[in-house]
């Protein structure tokens, strides 16, 4: 059974930091690209960061570049999102996604709430 379980969300003041984790099981984690998405109220889901199966060449949305870092530990089947210098506009539900192009596979976690507010 495939599972992606996010953790680490919460309430943080502007300028603060959080580290999200996503623990994967039920599939061969090391062969999947991993992504973090977010969705704010009444907005479309937005791709935040992507990391390849080997951990090379992470990419970021312009809105988080220089503040967020995606990483993965294939030995622990876990992907992380370190979020620094948080802003109120980073408030959203953050989702972990596992994707493979062939065969086509696309898995989602249940999401974790991040709220940036004073």
What does this structure look like?
By secondary structure, the protein is mainly β. It contains no helices and eleven strands. It has strands at 3-7, 10-12, 18-25, 33-39, 46-51, 59-60, 68-73, 78-83, 92-100, 105-108, 112-116. Strands 2, 4, 5, 6, 9, 10 and 11 form a seven-stranded mixed beta sheet that branches. A four-stranded antiparallel beta sheet has the order 1-3-8-7, with no helix packed on it. A hairpin with a 6-residue loop joins strand 4 and strand 5 (46-51). It is globular. The mean pLDDT is 96.
How many runs of DSSP E, i.e. beta strands? 11
Strand content: over 45%
Give the count of helical stretches.
0
Q: Supply Rg.
A: 14 Å
Query: Which structural class matches the secondary elements?
Result: mainly beta
Q: What structural keywords apply?
A:
118 residues; mainly beta; seven-stranded mixed sheet; four-stranded antiparallel sheet; globular
Give a short synopsis of this structure:
This protein has 118 residues and is mostly beta strands. It has strands spanning 3-7, 10-12, 18-25, 33-39, 46-51, 59-60, 68-73, 78-83, 92-100, 105-108, 112-116.
Write the layout of secondary structure elements.
Blueprint: E1 3-7, E2 10-12, E3 18-25, E4 33-39, E5 46-51, E6 59-60, E7 68-73, E8 78-83, E9 92-100, E10 105-108, E11 112-116
Parallel strand pairs: 2-11
Antiparallel strand pairs: 1-3, 3-8, 4-5, 4-9, 5-6, 7-8, 9-10, 9-11
